[in-house]
């Protein structure tokens, strides 16, 4: 069988993978914190028809004669660039401006996410859309001395300072709260004082593009992402938190449509290569008649 037939088959498979990646990007164009992907290709081994020769006193050198055997899928990269921020006017919506990830826990495992649409449950615990608890440092914990000593955060409206566990404030009740750029949750109490209720924890990685996507806007470390480096926003390379904002997907629809056309035409060209190879094989079979 001629080599071009198999090269065409491999090319069709490659461009199908490219279109799959593009389809996933377009499907998540409005997914908060989503990071787009791209497919890259590489050429396969080439068959050596004739080796190179060096120059002599009587004759110049010649280049090798090689015939390529098609291409293959080299990688599917995650492009971890910043998405645009959208104002929501909602106090519990947060966007990270820069590097870093929020930390959430389902009770068994720890996950990381860029989606900052958070909520309060009936007990005043800060959770994500799936009920996973957002991790942070309590008001009595210094993040600089205990980076991994974090847990769930409580914002119990109407509770007294004593019930919340604050050292001062007594019977003053929590009326409202705000979240700073460093993730500190500041509660305004009925006595007019502002007291810290805790601080949102964040993590960053040496290679964020190496994280494994788990679905539901969640990520987990892989063998090539590096270990999470815990701390708070605005320190050690971690970005700041923008309140009442959400980070949108970094998918560019115009770019995806252009790449979709490239993928479609590439797929069609490879099918044409298979058709042409088939016609040549048919002519060879007809020679025997």
TrEMBL record:
- Residues of the region (Disordered) are 50-91
Naming one, the record's GO cellular component terms include: bacterial-type flagellum basal body
Ranges for domain Flagellar basal-body/hook protein C-terminal come to 244-287
Q: Where is the Flagellar hook protein FlgE/F/G-like D1 domain?
A: 95-186
Q: Which UniProt keywords apply?
A: Bacterial flagellum, Cell projection, Cilium, Flagellum
Subcellular location(s): the record lists: Bacterial flagellum basal body
Q: What segments bear the compositional bias annotation Polar residues?
A: 75-88
Q: Which GO terms describe its biological process?
A: bacterial-type flagellum-dependent swarming motility
Q: Which Pfam family name is an example for this entry?
A: Flg_bb_rod
User: InterPro entries attached here?
Assistant: Flag_bb_rod_N, Flagellar_basal_body_rod_CS, Flagellar_FlgE/F/G, Flg_bb/hook_C_dom, FlgE/F/G-like, LlgE_F_G-like_D1
Domain annotation Flagellar basal body rod protein N-terminal: ranges: 5-35
Superkingdom of this protein's organism: Bacteria
**Family of the protein in this entry:** Belongs to the flagella basal body rod proteins family.
Question: What is the annotated role of this protein in its UniProt record?
Answer: A flexible structure which links the flagellar filament to the drive apparatus in the basal body.
Report the protein name in the record: Flagellar hook protein FlgE
Q: Which organism is it from?
A: Salisediminibacterium halotolerans
């Amino acid at each position: 069988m001629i080599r071009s037939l198999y090269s065409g088959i491999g090319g069709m498979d490659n461009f199908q993978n490219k279109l799959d990646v593009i389809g996933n990007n377009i499907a998540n164009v409005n997914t908060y914190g989503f990071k787009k992907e791209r497919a890259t290709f590489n050429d396969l081994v080439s068959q050596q028809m004739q080796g190179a020769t060096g120059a002599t006193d009587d004759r110049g050198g010649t280049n090798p004669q090689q015939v390529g055997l098609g291409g293959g899928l080299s990688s599917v990269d995650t492009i971890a660039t910043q998405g645009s921020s959208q104002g929501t006017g909602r106090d519990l919506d947060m966007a990270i401006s820069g590097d870093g990830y929020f930390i959430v826990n389902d009770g068994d495992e720890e996950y990381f996410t860029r989606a900052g649409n958070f909520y309060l449950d009936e007990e005043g615990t800060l959770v994500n859309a799936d009920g996973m608890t957002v991790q942070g440092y309590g008001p009595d914990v210094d993040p600089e001395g205990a980076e991994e000593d974090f847990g769930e955060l409580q914002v119990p409206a109407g509770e007294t300072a004593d019930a919340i566990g604050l050292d001062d404030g007594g019977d003053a009740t929590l009326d409202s709260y705000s979240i700073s750029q460093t993730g500190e949750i500041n509660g305004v109490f009925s006595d007019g004082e502002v007291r810290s209720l805790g601080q949102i924890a964040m993590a960053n990685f040496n290679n964020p593009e190496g994280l494994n996507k788990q679905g539901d806007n969640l990520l987990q470390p892989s063998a090539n992402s590096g270990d999470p480096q815990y701390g708070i926003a605005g320190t050690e390379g971690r970005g700041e938190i923008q309140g009442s904002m959400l980070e949108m997907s970094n998918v560019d629809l115009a770019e995806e449509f252009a790449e979709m056309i490239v993928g479609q035409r590439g797929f069609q060209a490879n099918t044409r290569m298979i058709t042409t190879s088939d016609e040549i094989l048919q002519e060879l079979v007809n020679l025997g008649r």
